[in-house]
TrEMBL record:
<dbReference type="GO" id="GO:0046872">
    <property type="term" value="F:metal ion binding"/>
</dbReference>
<feature type="transmembrane region" description="Helical">
    <location>
        <begin position="59"/>
        <end position="79"/>
    </location>
</feature>
<comment type="pathway">
    <text>Porphyrin-containing compound metabolism; heme A biosynthesis; heme A from heme O: step 1/1.</text>
</comment>
<keyword id="KW-1015">Disulfide bond</keyword>
<keyword id="KW-0408">Iron</keyword>
<dbReference type="InterPro" id="IPR003780">
    <property type="entry name" value="COX15/CtaA_fam"/>
</dbReference>
<feature type="transmembrane region" description="Helical">
    <location>
        <begin position="162"/>
        <end position="179"/>
    </location>
</feature>
<feature type="transmembrane region" description="Helical">
    <location>
        <begin position="246"/>
        <end position="266"/>
    </location>
</feature>
<feature type="transmembrane region" description="Helical">
    <location>
        <begin position="91"/>
        <end position="113"/>
    </location>
</feature>
<keyword id="KW-0479">Metal-binding</keyword>
<dbReference type="Pfam" id="PF02628">
    <property type="entry name" value="COX15-CtaA"/>
</dbReference>
<comment type="similarity">
    <text>Belongs to the COX15/CtaA family. Type 1 subfamily.</text>
</comment>
<keyword id="KW-0472">Membrane</keyword>
<keyword id="KW-0812">Transmembrane</keyword>
<feature type="binding site" description="axial binding residue">
    <location>
        <position position="215"/>
    </location>
    <ligand>
        <name>heme</name>
    </ligand>
</feature>
<keyword id="KW-1133">Transmembrane helix</keyword>
<feature type="transmembrane region" description="Helical">
    <location>
        <begin position="217"/>
        <end position="234"/>
    </location>
</feature>
C-alpha cells in the first residue's frame, strides 16, 4: 500500500501542475510556442530556436506526458489492489480517460486549430481528471482509517443540492475558460459591474463584454449557493466535524476565489494572480467532488 499511496499523492500534485501549466500556456499566449507541430516542437526533437513561449509550451507537454504515465500507473495499480471498492474502477477509468482527452484536444488545437468555444473545454476536462485522481487518493487513504468517512450520511435534499452545484460549477468553469480564450479578461475595466458600454451593445466588442459579465454573474451565484449550503450544514450537521470542516473550507476557497477574480481586473491580469485563480477553483471542485462521492455512498446506504 505504501507504493500505491505514494503514487496517488504524486499523481494528485502532478494533476495540479497540469492544470496550472495549461492555464499558464493560455495566459501567456504560448499555445503555438512549438508551431503547428506535435508532440515535437517545430518538427524537431531538440528545437534549434528557443524562446519563452516554446519553453512554456514544451514544459507543459512534458509535464502532462509524465503525469499521464503516473495516472495510468495509479489507475492500473488501484484497479488491481483496491478494485473491490465500489468506486475505484470507475474513477480509475475516468482519471486516465479525461487526461487523455485533454491531451488529444490540445494536440488537435496545435495541429488544426480549434474555436475558442472548443478550447474552453480543455480546462474543465482536466478538472474532471484531477477530481477523479484526488478521489482515488482519498479512497486509498481511507482504507487504513486515516480518517473516518463511513459514518457520514448526507440527506437526500442536500445530495440533490450537491449534484446541482457541481454541475453548475463546471459550467461556470467553462465560462471562465471562455473569458481567457477569447481574451475578454479586460473588456470590463471595473468590478463587479461593467461601465464600459451599453449592455445592449452586440458588436464584436460587446459580445466579449457579455462573456465577461456572464462569467461574473454565474460565479456570483456559486458564491451565494456555497454560503447557503454552509449555513445549512452548520444547522443540520452539528455533530459531524467532517461536513462542517469541509464546508468551512469550501466557503474560504470561494471567498478567496471571488477576491482573486477582482484582483485579476485590478492588477490587469497579473500572471501570478491569474494562476492562483485557476488553482483555487481546482481545489474547490476537488472538494465538491469528495462530497459528491459521500453523497453517492449515502444514496446507496438509503437504498440498502
Amino acid at each position: 500500500m505504501k507504493l500505491l499511496k505514494g503514487l496517488a499523492v504524486l499523481s494528485t500534485f502532478g494533476m495540479l501542475l497540469v492544470l496550472l501549466g495549461g492555464a499558464l500556456v493560455t495566459k501567456t499566449g504560448s499555445g503555438m510556442g512549438c508551431g503547428q507541430s506535435w508532440p515535437l516542437c517545430h518538427g524537431q526533437l531538440i528545437p534549434s530556436s528557443i524562446n519563452l513561449e516554446l519553453i512554456i509550451e514544451l514544459s507543459h507537454r512534458l509535464v502532462s506526458g509524465g503525469v499521464g504515465l503516473f495516472v495510468l500507473a495509479l489507475a492500473i495499480l488501484s484497479w488491481r489492489r483496491v478494485g473491490h471498492i465500489r468506486e475505484v474502477k470507475f474513477l480509475s477509468f475516468l482519471a486516465f480517460f479525461f487526461l487523455l482527452a485533454q491531451g488529444l484536444i490540445g494536440a488537435a488545437a496545435v495541429k488544426w486549430g480549434q474555436s475558442d468555444f472548443v478550447l474552453a473545454m480543455h480546462f474543465g476536462i482536466s478538472l474532471v481528471s484531477f477530481s477523479a485522481v484526488l478521489l482515488l487518493t482519498l479512497i486509498i487513504f481511507e482504507i487504513d482509517k486515516k480518517f473516518d468517512a463511513d459514518s457520514v450520511y448526507i440527506k437526500k435534499d442536500l445530495r440533490i443540492q450537491f449534484y446541482g452545484l457541481i454541475s453548475y460549477v463546471l459550467l461556470v468553469v467553462y465560462t471562465g475558460a471562455l473569458v481567457r480564450h477569447t481574451n475578454s479578461s479586460m473588456v470590463c475595466m471595473d468590478w463587479p459591474f461593467c461601465y464600459n458600454r451599453s449592455p445592449f451593445d452586440f458588436s464584436s466588442y460587446g459580445i466579449y463584454q457579455w462573456i465577461q459579465m456572464g462569467h461574473r454573474l454565474a460565479a456570483g451565484m456559486v458564491f451565494i449557493w456555497t454560503i447557503y449550503l454552509f449555513i445549512k450544514v452548520l444547522r443540520e450537521y452539528k455533530d459531524d466535524s467532517l461536513m462542517r470542516t469541509g464546508w468551512l473550507i469550501a466557503v474560504i476557497l470561494m471567498i478567496v476565489q471571488v477576491a482573486l477574480g477582482a484582483f485579476v481586473i485590478i492588477t490587469y491580469v497579473h500572471l501570478i494572480v491569474a494562476l492562483l485563480h485557476a488553482l483555487v477553483i481546482s481545489l474547490y471542485v476537488g472538494l465538491l467532488s469528495y462530497f459528491l462521492l459521500l453523497s453517492s455512498r449515502s444514496a446507496k446506504k438509503h437504498k440498502d
